[in-house]
């Protein structure tokens, strides 16, 4: 109440000062204007009175002078007037007789100066304008003058009226402004502040979910900082809780904090540099704003938590249309935007480099070659030329960033940079270089069709460590080296020795950020029916698939299995819907645009076949979805179906298992995905076998609850024991041990 009163009085005072200033200026202007108008009108009256033989008339008729002066005063609305001949001879009417003594000095001044004179007098009367006009006779200067007395008191009345009106207007305005301001402050400031008090209280007691509601717009920055502080407090509590759990379970489960300490000890203050083609954060224009997004990528899902935990430098290609606007003069930016933990340096590719390096050799050549998914690889000399050029550009960037270090740790990501290890080691022999190959490695016969297989292999063998997802892929790589190069393959420790340099080849099954605190966390679960209703579909059961629209993911085989399941089990028609979240990918390549069209047409065909009101057999959501958007589908689906025809690991399988805090649901997993070697609790299928895949859907929907619990617990324990922090620690320890 005191604050409201203080605000009201302050506003009234402030508005009053402003109104006083404007009113004072208005009155000054108005007073000058009225005075000028009065003086002009008075001079015109005097001129008219003094015209002709008027003065002679007065001299000859002094007995009637007072009557004539009264008549003229009435005619021209004067208080009175006088005719001055000399100090002893003045004709004046009674109305102004008392003003004559105070006027003599002014009359004398006017006559001496031979000019008209204005002055304002009072002398007990209302404010009066005194006007003296000397009169010439026969073009000669005389000592005679006409003196007019005009009422000027009305000017004061007008000015007083302005003051009164402005005061009333000001008072009303001040009250309205005060009322509106108090209302705005109470609802626009106090209410959000009260929310912030609730948020701080929620943070103190650990209720993080309550922090997600955004405040009023102008308090958004404060809300953001409070959320960060609250999350940091919550994470600290969770870390303490997790450490207690680790001691209780006597387990060696890796956490971000443990990884940070381990990497710090291993690096010994040496810089860690991650190199990839895809960047972890992209900036795009969205209207007049710049929006930051995390691209859909298993590699980013795996590497991001490591850089957040350990810091360092990530070098990647800038691909967002606002990327150049957000970096500094060194093409660097601190990320994540809301709470920077490491540095991202962006390199820029020309359109020709992108066409030939990325779309050409990387994704029309190496990608289909390594996946053996019935898409013929295409090799062009010009693509390889740009592939070398971009690898050289990245090598120069890495060397520039590590110029002051002799033994930096350099972790190269994926098939885009097969030549990069050798280029770096050639210039910096003591650097610790590793390359992790996120996709499969084919058998020697398949890889042998690449015209530049020797150059690719020699580039990779420049690394100290080569990592694959599985031992199966390691074996294929060593067999390829053995058949293509003159080198010594040491099968007892899975290494290659060539020209005095030894490269260790090891499996590192990549994973996700999943710790004990995540294991015990239950993801809020809405019903499948509710999620489907948001998309205009009525169904009781739901399956989920999440893939980039890529010919290696077996999406069409998945749809055929759903179709066959509904054929064999008609009771599920109208009750079961399969949701496929498909992110468009590499649509500039014909094989990918054809695949996208094929996926859409197959979904339409199956939906048309089982056409029913308010129901679809397949719901295809064809756009990029954030992790937050996908999680409700993971948590609510009866099963997740991964049908990769050939895959490195496939983290979708692990992400689905990670969300199942209630240990329910089922995972249908292709045996051609690397994850199938770890997640033995999944229903393993051959995606080419449509009949068995359809049966797997039925098994997943009708699996007893106790079996679901047993399988899901086993898979979740595998993931928490082999999470991304464990993967990173194993990889970096292997690099440090070389």
Automatic annotation (TrEMBL):
It holds the Pfam family Glyco_transf_20. The chain crosses the membrane at residues 6-24, 167-189. GO terms for molecular function: alpha,alpha-trehalose-phosphate synthase (UDP-forming) activity. GO terms for biological process: trehalose biosynthetic process. Keywords: Membrane, Transmembrane, Transmembrane helix. It comes from the Bacteria. Belongs to the glycosyltransferase 20 family. This is Trehalose-6-phosphate synthase.
